[in-house]
Amino acid sequence: MQSPLTQTEFPKAPRRFAFGPLLVVAATWLVVVLIFLPPYVGVGPRAMLMSAFSSVCHQIPARSPHLEGVQLAVCHRCVGIFAGLAVASLIFALLLRAGPWLRDKALLVILISLAPLAVDWSLDAFGIWNNTPFTRTLTGATFGLAMGALLVSSVRGTPTAGA
């Protein structure tokens, strides 16, 4: 005798919306907005923003971008890192799906994305060549793009309560 309910007759679990990746997108873009805010706020809020970002960036004026004569909250390389993080989080949250292979190879992805940054920094530190705002921003963006992809992939791969 056959069971009254076959496997195909069980109701499907409701489809859950992935809020984790969207939270990552919102947070990374908020950070980018805060980085670019100093030229457009008063002295008090500007000092608070600069202080808040001083724990993650050296903020050396000669190595930092300026808008309207006012220094941004981070240096060129950090602008690249944070902008890359925001762009990649948006792309991977909304358009692309990185498989578990990305999380499985996280250390390799991190090392490969750090290589251009390390080379750019090392060549400058040892006096072999002078890096530029462009190379600092570009190498930072390379690292930021990889980290954004990893971050969204990790959040998406995290099981939710009740799963």
Give the secondary structure arrangement, pairings included:
Blueprint: H1 19-36, H2 43-53, E1 66-67, E2 70-71, H3 76-94, H4 100-104, H5 106-125, H6 133-157
Please describe what this structure looks like.
The protein has six helices and two strands. With 163 residues, the chain is mainly alpha-helical. It has one domain. The longest helix is centred in the last third of the chain and has 25 residues.
Largest sheet: 2 strands, antiparallel
* 3D shape: flat
Binned, the helix content reads 55-70%
H/E series: HHEEHHHH
The neighbouring-strand order within the major sheet is 1-2
Low-confidence stretches: 159-163
What percent of residues are in strands? under 5%
Radius of gyration: 21 Å
Count of beta strands: 2
- How far do the termini sit from each other? 33 Å
Number of domains: 1
Q: Count up the helices.
A: 6
Average per-residue pLDDT, rounded, comes to 87
Structural class: mainly alpha
